[in-house]
Amino acid sequence: MRETTQKNIQEAADHFDLGGKTVSVQINHSGHINDTAIVTAEKDGFRRRYILQRINTDVFSRPDELMENIVRVTSFLKKKIRSAGGDPERETLTVVPARDGAPFYRDGEGSCWRAYLYLENTVCYDRPDLPERFGQSGAIFGRFQRMLSDYPAETLYETIADFHNTKVRYQNFLSAVSEDCMRRAGEVEREIRFLEDRRDYTRILQETSMPLRVLHNDTKLSNVLFDQKTGKPLCVIDLDTIMPGYVITDFGDAIRFGASTSAEDERDLTKVHFDRNLYGLFRDSFLQEAGHALTDEEVRMLPDGAKLITYEQALRFLTDYLVGDVYYHTERTGQNLDRARTQIRLLEEMERML
After folding, report:
1. CA distance linking residue 26 with residue 107, whole number of Å
2. Are 339 and 264 in contact (CB under 8 A)?
3. Do residue 207 and residue 260 come from a single domain?
4. What is the pLDDT of residues 12-49, one digit of tens each?
C-alpha cells in the first residue's frame, strides 16, 4: 500500500459525512494491520472526533464483505443495547457511511477507507494493570456472545479463509518442515516433535457438535474500551475478524494471551507461565455473562479451547519461522521462534493444570 499521509487522509475524510469541516488529522502509529488516524470535524463551534482507517486489503482482500459483516453485526448489537436501556453509540462501534451511503470509500488508487465515531473518555490496556481487569474483559466478551447468541452466524462472510482450521494450519506446518527453505528445521527438532506429538488437537473442531456462533476472533484485552470515569468495560472494538466459528476459540485466544505471565516473545522461558488465577477470573466472568446462552458441551470444552488455540498459535509462529518470517512482523532474528517457544511452554503447563 502507498504511504499514509496527512494529504491522503484529508482526501479520504472529505468523502465521509463527518458533520462539519475537517480541522485536524492525527495519524495513529500503534496499529499493526490497518492505517489509522483520528480526524476532528467542526461545525458551528461544535467539534467531534472520528476514527478514519485505511483497510489493509493485503490481509482483507474483500473489503465489501468485511464491512458488510461489521455493519450487520453492529446494527444488530445496537438494537439489543437500546432495548436493554444502554447507549448504542458507546457500547458498540458506529460505522459512519461515505457520502454515497456505502460503508467504505475506495479512492482513485484503489485504497479502501472507513470511518467510525470516536468514543470519547475511554481507555484501553495492552496488559491488565490489575488482575481484575482481565476478569472484566471476560465479562464483556461473554456479554458479546450473549447478545449475539441468536444472530444467524452462518450468514456472515469468512473474511480470512481457514482462520481457525487447525488441520490446515498443521498441514502448512508439515509442508514448512519438509521444504525447510531457510534450513532452520535442524535447530528446532524438539519443537517440531512436540507439535507433531499433539496432532490430535487438529481433530477437536473437526468432530464437534457445538453450534456455529458469531466470533470476534481477536479477544485480547487491548480490544476492549473501558470507561474512564467508571472503570467498567464499555465496548468491544476491532471487529475485522468477525466470522462464524466455535465459541471455545474466542475463549481460548483470550486465555492464551491474557493468562500468560510474560510477553509473547519472551526469550527467558523461566518467566513464561500459565496463570491459573487469571484463567479463573476470565472464565468466571465470561460464564456469568454468557453462560446461559452456551450449551453444556461448549462450557465443558472451554479448557480445551485454551489448549487448542495455544497449540494452533505455536504452529503458526513456528511455521512462519521455518519459511523465513513472511507473515508476522519481526524486529529481530529468531523472534518468531521465541514466540513459538512461549506458546509451547504455556501449552505444557495448561496440559498439567486444566
Report:
1. 20
2. yes
3. yes
4. 999 998 988 888 888 876 656 788 999 999 988 899 99
Q: Whole domain around residue 143: which residue ranges?
A: 131-353
Same domain for 321 and 345, yes or no, is: yes
Residue with cell 468485511: 66
Asked if residue 200 belongs to a domain, the reply is yes
Kind and range of the H or E element at 42? strand 35-43
**Are the CB atoms for 281 and 221 separated by under 8 Å?**
no
pTM of structure: 0.94
Residue 24 belongs to a domain with what CATH number?
A: 3.30.200.20
Residue 92 has φ and ψ, to the nearest 5°, of -155, 165
CB atoms within 10 A of CB 170: 20
Q: Which of 280, 274, 279 is nearest to 344 (CA)?
A: 274
212/315 same-domain check: yes
- Domain shared by 193 and 296, yes or no: yes
What's the per-residue H, E or C state across 6-41?
HHHHHHHHCCECCCCEEEEEEEECCCCCCEEEEEEE
